[in-house]
Amino acid sequence: MKYNYYPGCSLERNAHSYHDSAMAVGTKLGIEFVEVEDWNCCGATEYMSIDKISAFTLSGRNLALAYEQKENGDLVAPCSLCLLNLQKSDHHMQESQELANNVNTSLAEGGLSYKPGSVQSKHLLDVFAKDIDENEIVEKVEKFLYGLKIAPYYGCLSSRPGFDGRENFDFPLRLDNLISLLGADVVDFPLKTHCCGGHMTQISEPTALELIRRLLKNAVDNHADMIVTICPMCQLNLDAYQDSVNKYFKTDFNIPVLYFTQIMGVAFGFEPKEMGIWQEFVNAKEVLAKILDEPPKVPKEKRASKTALPMAKV
Amino acid sequence: MTKPFEPMIIGFTCNWCSYRAADLAGTSRKKYPPNIRLVRMMCSGRLDPVFVLEAFSGGADGVMITGCHPGECHYIEQNFKALRRVLLLKRTIEPLGINPQRLKLVWASASEGNLFAKEVETFIGEVRDLGPLNWQKRAMRNDLRLVESLPEEVPV
Amino acid sequence: MNKKRIGVYVCHCGTNIAGVVDVENVAKWALEELGEEGVVVSKDNKFMCSSVGQELIQTDIEEQGLNRVVVAACSPHLHEKTFRTASERAGLNPYLCEMASIREQVSWVHTDKAIATQKAKAMVAGAVRRVAQHEPLEPIHVPINEATLVVGGGIAGIQAALEIANAGHPVYLVEREPSIGGHMAQFDKTFPTLDCAACILTPRMSEVGMHPKIDLMTWSEVENVDGYVGNFNVRIRKKSRFINLADCNGCGICEQKCPVKIVDKNFEAGIGYRKAIYRPFDQAIPNYPVLDQPNCTYFIKGTCKACEKFCPTGAINFEKEDELVNVEVGNIILATGYDLYDTKKIPQYGFGRLPNVFSSLEFERMCNAAGPTSGEIVLRDGVTKPKSVGIVHCAGSRDLNHNNYCSSICCMQSLKFAHLVHERTGATIYNFYIDMRTPGKDYDEFYQRVLEEKTFFIRGKVSEISDAARNEEEEGKLVVQVEDTLLGEQRRIPLDMVILSAALVPKADSGDVAKQFGISCSSNGWFSEKHPKLDPISTMTEGIFIAGCATGPKDIPASVSQGSAAAARVISYIETGVLALEPIRATVSEENCSGCRICNDLCPYNAIVFHDETMVSEINHALCQGCGTCVAACPAGAISGTGFSNEQILAQVKGLLMLDFAEPELEKVP
What we know:
The complex is a heterotrimer. Chain A is an alpha/beta fold. Chain A has 14 helices and eight strands. A four-stranded parallel sheet of chain A has the order 2-1-3-4. A four-stranded parallel sheet of chain A has the order 6-5-7-8, sandwiched between helices. By secondary structure, chain B is of the alpha/beta class. Chain B has one domain: Rossmann fold (3-Layer(aba) Sandwich), CATH 3.40.50. In chain B, strands 2-1-3-4 form a four-stranded parallel sheet, sandwiched between helices. In chain B, helix 1 links the parallel strand 1 and strand 2. Chain B starts with 8 loop residues before the first strand and ends in a 16-residue tail after the last helix. Chain C is α/β, with parallel strands linked by helices. Chain C has four domains: 150 residues, Rossmann fold, CATH 3.40.50; 246 residues, 3-Layer(bba) Sandwich (FAD/NAD(P)-binding domain), CATH 3.50.50; 168 residues, FAD/NAD(P)-binding domain; 56 residues, Alpha-Beta Plaits (2-Layer Sandwich), CATH 3.30.70. In chain C, the strands form twelve sheets. Chain C has a five-stranded parallel sheet, with helices on one face. A five-stranded parallel sheet of chain C has the order 20-27-21-22-23. The interface between B and C is large, with 49 and 53 residues.
């Protein structure tokens, strides 16, 4: 299987462990990621609100470049924000001929053009959670992550809006499913699509810290050992700002935040170090040491009390 | 001055949805060009390919078949049979020198008078652009092998 | 054969037609130009459908010896019957009268008078040529079997069965569950009068159980349907109850002694228990228990038989097998009801994850005095009374991600819940609604009453329900996040309990049932009516009627009305004894049939049978609905379709093409 790959800036900087682990896991599953030649920054969230046409042109250029090497397949972005910008640009260019013309006028300066709708883009998660057969994943697992309780965190950018008709974007489940294939326990994580604060850390730190606190608290309340994420922004905020949250709110959160490709790598038998684990701020070492050799015994479900009413379970 | 070309369209409609759509277009006074003349059948599944060929040979420049939407057929699923026949017919008429775009299948429910009128208008425009067919005259001149010049994209 | 003598009548329809079409010109032209086609009379009249117009046709048939009639007027769907009847009165076979729709298809949709007149002429020519090919036809008469099959023993089916049986005709009532009663039997109160559901339903149920004309088959399912209107042959599987019914007196000791207790997902909606041998509820009709084989210890482990040991009449029979029964009926009423939408499919609402989120049916059972909590409104722990309750409307309705339609009953049901919670717990109540829809007798008055009970109404679609607290006030509560669209603000409401007013959806197997009975479903899966307004209880298949929620979400009064309406139609069929069907049918010519069987699989009604001995196909005229697909498909041209034969359609096409778009001289007409 082959894809065009648009890593985005984060994966070259703070999130290179995401990139390394994705490549390693991809290779193991026989997937080839061909990097888009000469890609540029997606403009992140802010640029859209400053200058639309320039912002759309940034993503339009990436789409045009991806189209030039279309023979490699669909375009995959590991960063939720990059993906959203790609899809948003493509969508709006399809809706508005005027915008498409404007973007193409700019692109023409660089000898490029893009016909809206001609490149299919998707999230890296969809490659592993949808395109690859579940059995193939399970076959590659060398060390099931038994006993590890994981909160699956999608973040807001990959969940809304559903330009590509993704699964239920109010309450997605494909990461949950992938994690359980690896043998880990998925905990209920109601805030799985809530915002991590994004760049708010730079604008209004208390706001961002409150958003981060909610997420950390919800994961801990649901007994998660670890949060697993699919977005560099989310990882950065939850991991790097955990200390600030603790100081600001006088809490003692200490919950590691890893990329889903990193735990896939661990399950596939890679050394944690190869997956870039231990480069995070909240060290995952202790938690990973908790992985059991055998599936934990499911404790017999206690009936709350004699009077309790039975309940339909998901 | 020569008269501008006005195409002649024969429409085959099913009794339950699309004929009623035509009725509704009428009762709601929706205007569409008068180039179409309708034949009522009980179901679009009644469409015998011969009807279409006879219409072309009798002087029609285009034939429109209308039926209930898929899944809403009065006869459960017979409109799918019409669909199959139309697809086959499109392939059949091309070697006979008729542009397959002269044959069109439209789904219209009994409540879609507007849609019916719009589709008729569009189709008349399309056939007008294709020009006169004169199938019989061309057949008489025995130049049927002179296949109509086809526009670039012919739907298969 | 007689020479064709065709009369053409062109209607002015006041100015409806004459305002655009030169009607007199059309009539004159028909006489002059269509003489060769057999037109001997051609007239125009102000209103052909008036008695004067009709008499004109009658007189001409009688005096001029017309043997074909063409009326150029409105759509045949409006007045074909009128003119055919007029022709018949004058002694002409009604099927020798044909219409040309020059109002709906000409005068109302075109503006250019000359071209419209030209098109009207072409359409008259088409009709004239077509009618020349017509043959006299006789309606098909089908005798109607007096018995009726009603499928589904909910309130709609019960009503239909009682109406027919009370008229003195036999009814077979088939119900899949162990007892009749349907969803209504699960409810506590009914809106807006707050009648106790059981109090008004159970008398009807026992009436059914005791009615000499009703053969009640519960715990049974229809397996196969053959035949056609008037003469259906239905095979019913009576699933084994593992009870000898003749011996059982319904004492209920077996149920008491059975050691197996399982969650009752059907009647108790998953919040109550039942035994492995059980009656769904005390007033069940019939009152015999059913042994739940997959959960019975004896069938799993081979020992137990507690029920057998304690049964005072020795009625338990572990060897009992399913029974197959064949019945012959003339008509069938399908009242198969609905399912509740599985709110687990809306995961952000937390049903199945958060204990104190309840589905509407769970809450109905909880309110019911005979339910698992004896009518106490409590949290999932079975003890704590909620201090604040939220009711979420449209859970799965009016939502493109789930069901795009309105489930019709949920607003009123939610108001009923609000009232019951208020009355029994005094809790603070929030209703989260998109729009309030209370269009029924005394419905809006009930809404006013609930408003006065100080229930809060928040207009907005709930985005999520979670237990993720943000502050102390929210700790330990369910938090409903909603945009209050009247305030224009996001709100978070902490509550003890949330009830989801789930959507009503078609029965999971409604598609299979539709197929079995040869009817169709709408895109949402509800059974399709013959006409949504004018014939909501008939289907496109003769002799099969529908009632209640099987055709779409409905409240009890509407379901009951439909049950009665379907019954009235069936009774009128039975009383007539014979049904006259339109003779538009296909027929196979035995001589020309090559036995290729291509037509056999094309028929959606299985009307075509193949005779192995003679190697020809034959069409059953009572089953055939006249679509004509087989006629078009027969490679040997061996099938002819009355009313729409090849000759007739081709003649019409020729006629329509007789005139060009508009002749030059006509363009000069002022």
